[in-house]
Amino acid sequence: MKRRILVALLPLLASGAVVARAPYPQDPLHSPMWTAHAAAIFGDDPVRFDPRITLKYPAIAENQRSFPVVLDARGVAGVRRMVIFADLNPIPVAIDYRPSDSAAYIATRIKLDQRTPVRGAVQLADGQWLVSGGWIDAAGGGCSAPPLSRVRGDWAEHLGELRGEAWATGEAGTSRLRLMVRHPMDTGLVGNIPTYNIETVTITSATGAVLGELEMSAANSEDPALTVMPHAAPGETLTIAARDTNGRIYPASVVVPGMRAP
Amino acid sequence: MILSRRSMLGGMLAVGPASALDPRFTYHIAPVLVADGIWMIAGADEPILPGNGGAIANIAIVATPAGTVLVDCGPSLRYARALKAVAEGLTGKPVVRVFITHLHPDHGMGITAFDPAIVAALPGTISEMARDGRGFSDAMYRILGDWMRGTDLALPAISIASDHEAFGGRSLRLLALSGHSAADLALLDERTGLLIGGDLLFHHRAPSTPTADLAQWRKSLTALESLPHKGALPGHGPFDPSGTEAVAQTRDWIDWLETTLIDAVRSGLDMVEAGEIAIPERFSAMAAARYELQRSVSHLYPALENRLLPRVDKQAD
Predict the structure, then answer these.
(1) In chain A, what are the domains?
(2) How many CB atoms lie within 10 A of CB A82?
(3) How close, in Å, is residue A50 to chain B by CA atoms?
C-alpha cells in the first residue's frame, strides 16, 4: 500500500521524538524544522540538495492563501515521487505526487501561514531524494483564516465543480493537464470548521492505466488548481478521479486535443 | 533594582517623543511646483518597503484662498504630520481639506494626522476603507514596522456627493470614477486645467491591480481622455506635462496585461509561468513591471481560469 506521509508526519511531530536516522546534509536554508521534516519524509533514504530540480514561485507572496509553486524535475531521469512542503506551515506537506507515467512536473497553489522555507523534494527509483527550495516571506494566517467560500456561504453550491483542459505539448506523447476543483480545503485550524479537503487525485488513461496519482493536504489553496504532464497522445481521453476526506469522489474526463499546426 | 511594569511603561512613554524624531524614520518631503499653486510630492517608484517607509504614492498640495488642500496624505501618521508642516509652510495657510482618492493604504492611512471632519472621499471609498482598513493596517505594520508608529485607523467624515468644491474662488471638479478600485476620485483644478488622476493614472510605473476591474478602468481612462485638461499628476510615477502620456501608458499596460493573461490561461500556463512571461520592450522603462505582473497574476488569474476553462466533471450537463 501507499505510504501515507501526510498522516505519518503528525504523530512524529506531536511526540517531538525526532530521531535523525540518517545524517542529512546541512540545510542551506538553515530551517529550524529541517531535520524533523527530513526524518519524517525521507527516513533512512539518502538525501542531497540538487540544482537539477527546480522549485519555481513568484518573487512576492501576494496572497498567503494561494501561493503558486511549480516543482519541475524533468531534468532528472527516473523520478518516482515528488513532494512539496513548507517547513513552518502547521500542515507542512502539501503534495505527494507519483508521476508513474507522466513527466516529472507538478504545479499547485499552497497556503502560507507565515514566512517559511518552501521546498520541493524528488525521489528517484534508487531511493535517493533530491531537494530544492527557498525562503518565502509571507503575511500570516494562510492556514488559519476561513476560506472565502465559507465567508460568502456558497461553498456547498459549487462543491466538486471541476474545470480543466488538456494540451498536447511539443514533446511527443506528453500532454499538459490543468485541473481546478471547487473545494473549501478546510485546514481544521479555523474555529468550528473541521478538516475537509481533497486528499487524492488519480489520473488514468483510456485503458485504465494509472498515469499519475497524488495525495494532497489542506495546505493546498481553497479551490485547488493543479498542473501535471501525463504521457498521453493527442486524441486520448484522460480520466480523473478526485476524492475528499468525506469519501466523496469527483470524476472528470478531459480529451487531449490534436496537435495544432505551429 | 527590579523595575515594576508601571515604571517600565512610564520609561517607555518618556522615550516616545524622542523616537518620533528618530532620523531613521524621517520622511523627506520635497514638493515640486507643477502648476500655479499646485505642488507634487513624488513617491518612490518601488513596492512598499522599509527603505521608503511606504512613501510610494504621489501627493498633491493645492494652495487656495480658503486654505491648503491636500490630495492624498501618505501611508502613516509620521508622513502626514511632516506633509502638513511642509504644505502649510509652503502656502502659509492651514490645511482645510484632505481628499483621499481611493482606499489603498499608501494614499490614505495618514488621515489619522487630521481632524476627520476635514477629510473627504467618495462614499464607496469610505465603505471600502471601513471594510479593509484593519487588514491594510496589519500589512503595513508588518512590512514597515516603526515607520507606522502611532498610525491608527480613521475614516473620512465627508462623503463626497457633489461634482465640485470651491475653496474661496478656486474650484476643484470632483470626478467619481472606478476601475483601479470600486471608487476612484480624480480631480480637475479649474484654474490651471491640471488633472490629479489618483491611481487611475500610472506613469513610467506599472499599474497595480489588487482591487481592479479592468473594464471599468478602461471606461474611466476614456472619461479622463475626453475631459479637457492640461498636465496630469498620476498616482504613481513622474508628473506628466502632456496630460495624455500617463493615460495612454496605463491603458496600454492594462490592455496588454489582460490579453496576455487570457492567452496564458488558454495556452495552459500555470500562475508561476504566467508571472514569468516576457514583458514587451515598450514597457522596459516602466518601474516595478515584473513585480506588478506577478501581483496581477495573483489578483486576476483564478477568475480568468474560472471563466475560460470548461467544466469537465462528469455530472455536468
Answers:
(1) 5-255 (2.60.40.2470)
(2) 25
(3) 21
Q: B25-243: which CATH architecture?
A: 4-Layer Sandwich (3.60)
Residue B209 CA to residue B218 CA, distance in Å, equals 13
Q: Tally Cβ neighbours within 10 Å of residue A80.
A: 14
Give the residues across from B87 on adjacent strands.
none
Burial (CB count <10 Å: 0-12, 13-18, 19+), residue B128 = buried
Calpha distance A154→B56 (Å, rounded): 38
ipTM score of complex:
0.90
First to last CA, chain B: 78
Is A164's CB within 8 Å of B310's CB? yes
A223 in reach of chain B (CB within 8 A): yes
Secondary-structure percent of chain B, ordered helix, strand, coil, rounded to 5: 40, 20, 35
Nearest to A180 by CA among A233, A231, A97, A242: A242
Q: What share of chain A is helix, strand, coil (3-state, %, to 5)?
A: 10, 40, 50
pLDDT in tens, chain B (317 residues): 344 444 444 434 434 444 456 788 999 999 999 999 999 999 999 999 999 999 999 999 999 999 999 999 999 999 999 999 999 999 999 999 999 999 999 999 999 999 999 999 999 999 999 999 999 999 999 999 999 999 999 999 999 999 999 999 999 999 999 999 999 999 999 999 999 999 999 999 999 999 999 999 999 999 999 999 999 999 999 999 999 999 999 999 999 999 999 999 999 999 999 999 999 999 999 999 999 999 999 999 999 999 999 999 986 44
Pairing between β-strand B31-35 and β-strand A198-204 as defined by DSSP bridges: unpaired
Size of interface A-B (CB pairs under 8 A): 92
* DSSP state for residue B311 in the 8-state scheme: B
Residues A81 and A4: their CA atoms lie apart, in Å, by 13
Assess A82–B contact: CB distance below 8 Å, yes or no. Answer: no
Q: What is the phi-psi region of residue B231: left when phi exceeds 0, alpha when psi lies from -120 to 50, beta otherwise? A: beta
Contact between A12 and A40 under an 8 Å Cβ cutoff? The reply is yes
Contact (CB<8Å) A69/B272: yes
Helix or strand or coil: residue A98? strand
The structural domains of chain B, with segments of one domain joined by +, span 25-243
- Residues 6 or more apart whose Cβ sits within 8 Å of residue A10: none
Optimal mutation site among A72, A111, A165, interface B, most CBs of chain B within 10 A: A165
DSSP code at position B145? G
